[in-house]
Design brief:
By secondary structure, this protein is an all-alpha fold. The chain has eight helices and no strands.
Length: 190
């Protein structure tokens, strides 16, 4: 009995499927074939797995294929597009907002006494980014205002009937883009 239990523990049960799939080396396959010849439980397991695979193959090889309608893909896409907007309920947004607020509050409590210092650091950072953004907005506004004044002054000298009047804004715009690109990219004559 002890020898039989030891033999069952030494059986390569996990290698049976690898043997069926021919994933083993030829030497290991020969060892397993010799083992199957003397070990009845392993031989039965091998036959059961082979029968299962044969049954699976025969059940999947039906000539009665399901024919899909000609416009099947179009109907599927149309149904998917019509239901995508309804996947999320409006209440989910409020739940997400509540969860984010709760996590923020928990984070503030977790920081304890340092929460004020961290919050002040965030506020200062946001204020600094706002100041830089306002500075750039003012610079861009000033540049466009200057161009508007220049174009207005030049347009007053050119009569509307002249063809040059139509090309002036395009010329000024292209010149400005080239000027800025050379300054930003650092290209140009050295």
């Amino acid at each position: 009995m002890k020898a039989l239990e030891h033999n069952l523990q030494a059986c390569p049960a996990d290698e049976i499927s690898a043997y069926i799939d021919a994933e083993l080396t030829p030497a290991r396959e020969l060892e397993l074939e010799a083992h199957f010849a003397v070990c009845r439980p392993c031989a039965e397991e091998l036959n059961l797995q082979k029968q299962f695979l044969c049954g699976l193959d025969s059940s999947l090889k039906h000539d009665d294929e399901i024919e899909l309608p000609v416009d099947f893909a179009r109907h599927i896409v149309a149904n998917a597009e019509s239901t995508v907007a309804g996947l999320r309920r409006p209440r989910e947004r409020y739940n997400a907002l509540f969860i984010c607020a709760a996590m923020l509050l928990f984070g503030l409590f977790a920081l304890g006494a340092d929460a004020g210092r961290v919050f002040n650091g965030v506020v200062v950072g946001v204020e600094q980014m706002g100041a830089v953004g306002a500075f750039f907005a003012k610079v861009v506004y000033s540049i466009f205002l200057g161009f508007a004044i220049i174009i207005r002054a030049v347009a007053a000298q050119v009569q509307v009937g002249d063809g040059y009047f139509l090309f002036l804004p395009a010329f000024v715009g292209v010149a400005f883009v080239l000027f800025v690109s050379r300054k930003v990219l650092g290209t140009g004559r050295a």
